[in-house]
Amino acid sequence: MYALADCNNFFVSCERVFRPDLWNKPVLVLSGNDGCVISRSNEAKALGIKMGVPLYQIRDLVQKHQIACFSSNFSLYGDLSHRVMSILMRNTTRFEQYSIDEGFITLNHLPPEQHKPFCEKLVRDIYQGVGIPVSMGIAPSKTLAKVASKYAKKYPAYHGACAIDTDNKRLKALGTFDITDVWGIGRKASAKLTDYGITTALKFASMNERQVRTLLHKPGVLTWRELNGIDCIDTSEIIAKQSITTSRTFAHPISDRRLLEQQLANFCDSCARKLRMQRSLCTQIIFYIHTSYFRTDITPCHIAQTVNLPVATDNTAEILSYLLAAFRPLFRENMQFKKAGVIFSRIIPAEAAMADLFDTRDRTKHAALQSTIDRIRSRQGRQSVLLGTQLSPLPPSGDEQSEPYIAEHQSPLYTTDIRQILQIKI
Question: Are 229 and 171 in contact (CB under 8 A)?
């Protein structure tokens, strides 16, 4: 038996932890450069604000209803996520974190009649200990647990935990659950099913397995089995990403090569950190920079390059050295670049890596150094140890903007920077 813990409106909830004055008021969290809405409180949803809508399109609505807006503060969100997941981990024999705000736990160590009371207590403990509201779904398969968590989030009468633990409950829950909301059914698959009149999860679960395989192939069959109560999805395979991307649109165009290298180094660092977290290595990187697609007064320029690494690695400095060696000959002066990105691809498990007979790098030494850097960063913050390329190459009075991103509404780093810790005056 599984239970899925899903943090409610997670980014908004993180902001509200240190701003209790915002409870029951509309709140939005914005994407990079304060561009689009990426998290909404229930009050903001009730005003008709859609996910992904650009901020400039709803400025009048924001002012009219005095909606609180926040720039993304992922250091804060990541720390509070770790606290929530730590509580879940301590209360189960097996835990799998699926995303920054979701995690699966197993309930096999408890008798069936204790499943719901146990999860209700976990919801209360997380709220009391971290301040984040959580909804939990209980079911024999992970896809059904996702369905149950949606009902727990929607109906307060469940007290934060909904159980689909009988076939009657399963049929009733799936009968009113839209096919577009089913975990594992993407936009194309749901459109295909809708064309055949399959509009609810129950209709999909009632299909013949051969029909499902014909329409949606193996992934669709696995989801179909899960909705019928058969546990068959290994989330560890889903969690391990086959490509990792970091990209940003700059608030101000950048033409200085050193500033662009700084941004590419930051992207490379972020991707490599995620690579190590999932215990993987990459054998190929892709980088790109380009000017704005919407400006007609400048010469358009798009630079992209694929770099194959001679040995699979997760070492930030090593990967960055190959990236910069490929980037510098391609860079063009006096171009106003508006966006850049780095993609790690051809990712393999660390244990599957093959050594190169002609490799001259002392990988044991470099792995130990990288591990030490990661440990320091985990204690002192991600900015405590940086590569030289990540340091700003221009003084604050330089001609170009040293900070290429807009974050006009960012909250303090309450839990990760001692200089910004919450102060209480009495």
Answer: no
Give tens-digit pLDDT for 365-421: 999 999 999 999 887 777 888 898 988 776 544 455 555 666 678 888 888 777 888
Considering the domain architecture, whether residues 42 and 184 belong to the same structural domain is answered as no
Question: Using an 8 Å Cβ cutoff, are 135 and 153 in contact?
Answer: yes
Check which CATH number belongs to the domain holding 358 and give it. 3.30.1490.100
Residues 150 and 2 in one domain: yes
Q: pTM of the predicted model, to two decimals?
A: 0.77
Q: Give me the residues paired with residue 349 across strands.
A: 280
Q: How far apart are CA 81 and CA 83, in angstroms?
A: 5
Beta bridge partners of 105: 3, 95
**95, β-bridge pairs:** 105
Q: What pLDDT, on the 0 to 100 scale, is given for residue 183?
A: 93
Strand, coil or helix: 402 = coil
The DSSP line for 140-189 is SSHHHHHHHHHHHHH-GGGTTEEE--SHHHHHHHHHTSBGGGSTT--HHH
Helix axes 74-90, 115-129, angle to 10 degrees: 140
3-state SS record for 62-129: HHHCCCEEEECCHHHHHHHHHHHHHHHHHCCCCEEEEECCEEEEECCCCCHHHHHHHHHHHHHHHHHH
What CATH number has the domain bearing residue 4? 3.30.70.270
Q: Which of 262, 265, 270 is nearest to 246 (CA)?
A: 270
What's the average pLDDT block by block, 10 residues per block, for the chain (426 residues)? Answer: 96 95 95 88 95 93 95 90 94 90 94 96 97 97 97 96 96 96 92 94 95 92 95 70 85 90 94 90 94 86 93 94 95 92 90 77 89 87 86 60 66 84 81
Strands (E), 328-421: 337-349
Q: Which of 92, 96, 68, 76 is nearest to 11 (CA)?
A: 76
Cβ neighbours of residue 423 closer than 8 Å, sequence gap 6 or more: none
CATH number of the domain to which 199 belongs: 1.10.150.20
Domain that holds residue 147: 1-162
Q: To the nearest whole percent, how much of the chain has pLDDT over 70?
A: 95
Question: What pLDDT is stored for residue 350 in this prediction?
Answer: 85
